[in-house]
Design the sequence.
C-alpha cells in the first residue's frame, strides 16, 4: 500500500488495503493500482468484500476520512441495513443490524476484544465507547451468517481496527508521525491527535499516540441549543508488534478511553446524571501465516476489556428510586476472553478446499452499585460465561461454484445471587454460490445463530417511576431467571456484481443486492402485564414463586420469550468509479413483527426506517482535489409502525445533504472541509430522544512526516 494511498481523499468506492492480517486483490490499469478490500469477518478466510457470499460492508481509512466523524455513529453513516444509534447526550453508541440490537445481538469487536457493556435505559441496553479518530478499518457482516465468529451474533458482527504502525510509517522508512487538527462550528468542537511509530530493525514495530476531543452543546435545525449535547473525550493507545520468526507475528495492544457527559432518560426528563465512562482494553494476539504452508494458518488472541461508568445525579427530585441530587452510582463490567482458529487448505476431486476450526470464550463479570436508588436492581450484578467451538469447510470448484458448510456448538452459564440459567445448542450454516459469468455471482444461505440471555434480561428487578400503559404512575420490573436463549434462523439470497472496464478503460462497478428473512425463536422482549390488585401466581418463568400485588402499582414488566419474531428486508450497495467522477448508492427496506405467542402481529420497536444514501463526486488537479455531495433520505416512522406502549416516539421523514472537499497538495498533507446538514434540516433520528445537529461546518488538517531507512525486509507478511 503506497504512502499516497494513506493520505489521499478518495471516495467511498475507492477501496484501499485491508487490515494487516489480510492480503488484497489487485486491479491494475495504466494509471493506478486500486485494491478491493479484503475481509475475514464473514468466514475467517481472507476474501475480497465483493466476492463474499454475504451482506458485507467495509470501510477503510480513506472512506472514513471523507465522513470526518466526530461521533462514533458517524463511522456507519449510509451503511445498508446498519444503523448506529447515539443520542445527543451520551458518548455511548449502539449498533442496530436488520432490526436487531441490544444485549449482544450484534457482536462489536475492537482490536479483537468484545465490547459487552450494557446499561438498561430508554436509549437501549448495549453499547460501546470508542474514539472515531483512532479507527482505521470497519467491517460489518449482517445477519447470523458469521456464526463461526463468536457467540450471540444473531444480528451480525462489527469489527473495528485501530490505527497501527503500518498506517503511519511510509514504506522503506523506520519512523513516522501523524498529527491531525480538526475544528467545527455549531457549538465549537475541537479535536487533536498525535500518533507516532518506529520500526526497530525488521522485526519490531512500536506505536504510541493520544487524542483529545471537546464539543460544546450544538444547535438543531431550528436554531435551538440542544441541552447536554456537549462532551469531551481523551484516549491513549500503545502497540508493540514482534516477528520472532519467519511468518510469525505477536501483537500487544493497550487502549484507554475516557469521556465525560451529562445524560438523562429522555427529552425533558427531570432527572439527569453527570457521567464519566472509561473503556480499557488490553489484547495480545499471535498469528502465523506462511503462503507455502497449507496445513497451518493460525490466528489467536486473548483480551481483557473493562467499562467503568460512574454517574452522579445532578438534577431531579429526591425519591427512593433515583436517590437525591449528589448521590453516586456505578456500573462496571469486566470481560475476559480468547479466540483461536486454524485454516488448512488442500485440493481434491477438482475442489480447492479450506477447513477452518476453532473456538472462543468470554466471561462477563458485572459489578453494579447504587446505594441510594434502584440502579442496581435495573442492572443486577452477576457473571456470565459464553463459549463455543466450530468447524467450517469452504470449497471452490473451478471458477463457477463455491460452497460453505459450517457447524457451531455454543454453551452458556449465567449466575448471580438471585438465580441463574444455562443452555447449549449446535447451529448449522450452508451457503452455495454460482458464478455463471465472471462479473456475476448468485448465492443463497441458510444460517442459524444462538444468543444467550444477559444477566440484566434474566434478573432485572425493581420499581420504575414512569407511567405504565396510560394513566399509571409507575410499574415494577420482575426477574425471569428461566429465560431461554434466542435462536436466529436466517434465509438469504444475494447477487454480487464486479465489472471492470465497463464504459471506459479503468472504470469499476461493484454492487451487492440481498434479500433476507430472519426468524428468531424464543425472541426476548419486554412484556407488560397485570393490574393493580391480586397476585401473580406463578410468576412467568418462575413456576414455584408468586408475587403479590401489594405495591399499589398498575402493572408489571418482565423480559420474556415471546416464541417467535420475523425480520425481513432488502439491502443494496453499489459503487461506480471512473476516476474523474464516482457514484455510490446504498439503502434498505426492512420490517419485523412478533409472529407467534400472545403478542403475535405486534411490530418490533427496533426496526429502523427505510433509507437510501447517494454520493456523487469528482476529482480534479491530477486527483489532488476531491469534491463530493452526499444525500441521505430517511423515511418516517409512524405510530402504526410501533408496538403498543413503545417507549420510542414516531419520527418524521427527513433529507440530509452534505458536501465534502479534500485537497492533498503533496503526499504528506491532507486538507479536509465538510458542510453537514447543508439544508439545516430539523430532524430526530429514530430511537433518539433529542434532535440532531443543524448545519455544521468542519475543517481538518492531517500532516505526516517520517524518516530513517530500512535496508531490507525479508518477511512477506511485513510488506503491505
Sequence:
Amino acid at each position: 500500500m503506497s504512502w499516497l494511498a494513506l493520505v489521499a481523499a478518495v471516495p467511498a468506492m475507492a477501496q484501499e488495503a485491508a487490515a494487516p492480517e489480510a492480503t488484497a486483490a489487485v486491479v491494475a490499469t495504466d494509471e493506478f493500482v486500486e485494491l478491493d478490500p479484503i475481509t475475514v469477518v464473514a468466514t475467517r478466510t481472507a476474501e475480497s468484500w465483493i466476492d463474499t457470499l454475504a451482506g458485507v460492508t467495509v470501510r477503510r481509512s480513506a472512506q472514513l476520512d471523507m465522513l470526518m466523524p466526530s461521533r462514533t455513529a458517524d463511522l456507519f453513516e449510509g451503511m445498508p441495513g446498519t444503523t448506529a444509534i447515539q443520542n445527543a447526550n451520551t458518548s455511548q453508541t449502539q449498533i442496530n443490524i436488520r432490526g436487531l440490537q441490544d444485549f449482544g445481538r450484534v457482536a462489536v469487536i475492537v482490536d479483537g476484544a468484545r465490547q459487552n457493556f450494557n446499561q438498561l435505559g430508554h436509549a437501549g441496553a448495549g453499547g460501546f465507547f470508542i474514539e472515531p479518530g483512532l479507527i482505521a478499518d470497519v467491517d460489518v457482516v449482517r445477519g447470523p451468517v458469521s456464526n463461526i465468529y463468536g457467540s450471540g451474533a444473531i444480528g451480525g458482527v462489527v469489527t473495528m481496527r485501530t490505527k497501527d504502525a503500518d498506517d503511519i510509517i511510509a514504506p522503506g522508512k523506520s519512523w513516522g508521525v501523524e498529527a491531525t487538527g480538526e475544528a467545527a462550528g455549531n457549538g465549537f468542537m475541537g479535536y487533536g491527535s498525535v500518533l507516532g511509530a518506529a520500526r526497530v530493525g525488521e522485526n519490531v514495530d512500536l506505536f504510541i499516540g493520544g487524542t483529545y476531543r471537546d464539543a460544546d452543546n450544538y444547535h438543531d435545525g431550528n436554531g435551538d441549543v440542544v441541552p447536554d449535547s456537549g462532551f469531551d473525550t481523551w484516549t491513549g493507545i500503545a502497540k508493540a508488534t514482534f516477528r520472532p520468526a519467519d511468518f510469525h507475528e505477536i501483537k500487544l495492544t493497550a487502549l484507554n478511553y475516557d469521556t465525560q457527559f451529562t445524560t438523562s432518560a429522555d427529552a425533558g426528563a427531570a432527572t439527569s446524571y453527570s457521567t464519566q465512562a472509561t473503556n480499557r482494553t488490553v489484547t495480545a494476539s499471535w498469528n502465523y501465516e506462511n503462503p507455502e504452508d497449507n496445513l497451518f494458518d493460525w490466528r489467536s488472541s486473548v483480551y481483557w476489556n473493562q467499562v467503568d461508568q460512574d454517574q452522579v445525579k445532578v438534577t431531579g427530585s429526591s425519591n427512593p428510586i433515583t436517590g437525591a441530587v449528589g448521590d453516586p452510582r456505578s456500573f462496571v463490567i469486566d470481560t475476559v476472553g480468547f479466540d483461536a482458529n486454524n485454516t488448512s487448505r488442500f485440493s481434491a476431486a477438482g475442489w480447492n478446499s479450506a477447513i477452518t476450526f476453532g473456538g472462543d470464550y468470554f466471561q462477563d463479570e458485572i459489578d453494579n452499585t447504587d446505594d441510594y436508588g434502584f440502579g442496581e436492581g435495573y442492572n443486577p450484578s452477576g457473571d456470565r460465561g459464553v463459549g463455543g467451538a466450530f468447524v467450517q469447510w469452504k470449497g471452490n470448484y473451478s471458477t463457477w461454484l463455491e460452497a460453505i458448510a459450517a457447524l457451531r456448538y455454543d454453551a452458556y452459564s449465567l449466575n448471580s445471587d438471585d438465580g441463574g440459567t444455562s443452555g447449549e445448542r449446535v447451529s448449522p450454516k450452508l451457503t452455495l454460490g454460482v458464478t455463471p459469468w465472471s462479473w456475476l455471482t448468485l448465492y443463497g444461505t441458510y444460517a442459524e445463530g444462538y444468543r444467550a440471555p444477559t444477566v440484566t434480561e434474566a434478573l432485572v428487578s425493581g420499581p420504575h417511576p414512569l407511567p405504565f400503559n396510560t394513566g399509571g404512575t409507575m410499574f415494577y420490573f420482575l426477574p425471569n431467571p428461566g429465560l431461554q436463549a434466542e435462536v436466529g434462523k436466517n434465509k438469504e439470497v444475494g447477487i454480487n456484481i464486479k465489472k471492470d472496464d465497463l464504459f471506459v478503460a479503468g472504470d469499476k462497478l461493484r454492487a451487492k443486492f440481498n434479500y433476507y428473512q430472519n426468524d428468531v425463536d424464543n425472541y426476548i422482549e419486554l412484556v407488560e402485564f397485570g393490574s393493580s390488585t391480586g397476585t401473580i401466581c406463578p410468576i412467568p418463568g418462575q413456576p414455584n414463586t408468586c408475587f403479590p400485588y401489594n405495591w399499589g402499582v398498575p402493572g408489571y414488566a418482565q423480559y420474556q420469550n415471546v416464541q417467535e419474531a420475523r425480520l425481513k428486508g432488502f439491502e443494496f450497495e453499489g459503487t461506480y468509479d471512473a476516476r474523474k467522477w464516482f457514484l455510490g448508492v446504498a439503502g434498505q427496506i426492512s420490517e419485523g413483527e412478533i409472529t407467534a405467542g400472545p403478542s403475535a402481529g405486534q411490530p418490533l420497536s427496533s426496526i429502523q426506517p427505510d433509507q437510501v444514501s447517494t454520493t456523487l463526486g469528482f476529482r480534479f488537479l491530477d486527483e489532488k482535489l476531491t469534491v463530493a455531495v452526499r444525500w441521505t433520505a430517511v423515511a418516517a416512522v409512524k405510530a402504526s409502525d410501533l408496538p403498543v406502549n413503545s417507549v420510542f416516539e414516531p419520527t418524521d421523514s427527513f433529507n440530509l445533504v452534505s458536501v465534502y472537499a479534500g485537497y492533498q497538495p503533496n503526499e504528506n498533507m491532507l486538507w479536509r472541509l465538510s458542510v453537514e446538514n447543508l439544508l439545516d434540516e430539523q430532524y430526530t433520528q429514530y430511537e433518539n430522544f433529542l434532535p440532531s445537529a443543524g448545519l455544521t461546518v468542519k475543517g481538518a488538517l492531517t500532516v505526516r512526516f517520517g524518516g530513517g531507512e530500512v535496508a531490507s525486509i525479508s518477511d512477506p507478511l511485513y510488506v503491505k
User: Anything to note?
Assistant: Residues 204 and 242 are 5 Å apart (CA to CA). Residues 1-33, 467-473, 712-720 have pLDDT under 50 and may be disordered.
